[in-house]
Each structure stands twice: as C-alpha cells, then as structure tokens.
Amino acid sequence: MSPGFPSAVSIPLTHPLSGKIYTLARADALEGTPDEVADLIAACNEPLIYDWLFRERLEGQPYTGVQAASFFNWTRSGWQSGTHFVFALASPCGRLVGLLDIKSADPTAAEVGYWLSSKHRGLMGAALEALETLARNAGCRSLYARIRPGNGRSQAVVQRAGWVDTGLEAEGSHLRFVRQLVSA
Q1: How many CB atoms lie within 10 A of CB 173?
Q2: Which pLDDT value is given to residue 172?
Q3: Rounded to the nearest 5°, which phi and psi values hold at 164?
Q4: H or E, element range at 11
Q5: Residue 40, Cβ neighbours under 10 Å: how many?
Q6: pLDDT, tens digit, for every residue of 148-174?
Q7: pLDDT-flagged residues of the chain (< 70)
Q8: 10-180 has which fold?
Q9: Rounded to an integer, what distance in angstroms lies between the CA atom of residue 70 and that of residue 37?
C-alpha cells in the first residue's frame, strides 16, 4: 500500500540561523519555469552538491537544462504514479533552494534523499523533521538514508535529527541511517 500524502502541502519552516520563513511543498507543483530551472541548475552545480550527487553520474559534465527538464518530468511522474515523492524547499522570496525525496512507495522502509543550496545552510534539519511528520501521517513506518562515507554534513543532518547509524551497508559504499516513525 502506497503512502497517503496529502494532495497539497505547504509547510512553513523557520530557518534556525536567520529566522526567515521558508516553505516545504510538494515538488509536483513546480512548473519548470525559467526561474525554477535556473535555481535547480545553479544549486546542482554548487561544488558540494555536484561532487556528492552528480559528478560521477554526469561524468564530470555540468548539470544542465536537459537534466533539469528530466528532473521536473520525473518528479511529476512519481507523484502521478505513486512511486516516489519529491518535496521542494522554497526561500522566503519563493526561489527553489533544496529538495527532499522519499524514493519509494514502501511504507515499511522508504529511502530518503536530500540536498540544500549552501546559501541556505542550516535549514535541512527542520526540513527533514517536517518530512518525517509528513511520512508518518501518510502511513510510513520507517525511513532510511544512505550516505557515502566522508559526507559529514549529510551525516550530521540525520544524526542531529536522531536517526540511528546502522553502519556500512553490505556492498560497502554507503552508511545507513534509520528513523523509526512508529513504535514496533
């Protein structure tokens, strides 16, 4: 049974460093406007995001409008088919600054991924907490994150949020962090 996320999501998040109000929303509401495409391209080419998520996949080539268009299509198709669920983080002025996703419809244990522009550092903990609440209310029982060793910033986000480090996965390329959303 697929998680039952609401058809509309708009959650205000207070940035813990600036006090400014950001918004977490379903990313299928993004239209792929020129500003959204530009924001996505800029963030995905930031050194930390690019190095951890795209350098290998794109064989060292920059993240471009082609990848952005594909991303927006993939996001919409995930929500339509109920296979994966992407949420967008918007700045106080409405610009796209980060993304979080639940990568499957498995309510027993779904993988979470996330990234945030370095210009808005410090917000991901609040965003992850909001995502946990959404997932719990949608019927998810457990979430997990796969983080490559050496990605200390990402590890710190889940550790501060109380996720449990279960160690290196069998294939040895990722650490696994688990968050139980309901009591066993």
Answers
A1: 10
A2: 80
A3: -95, 130
A4: strand 10-14
A5: 22
A6: 999 999 999 999 999 999 999 988 899
A7: 1, 184
A8: Aminopeptidase (3.40.630)
A9: 11
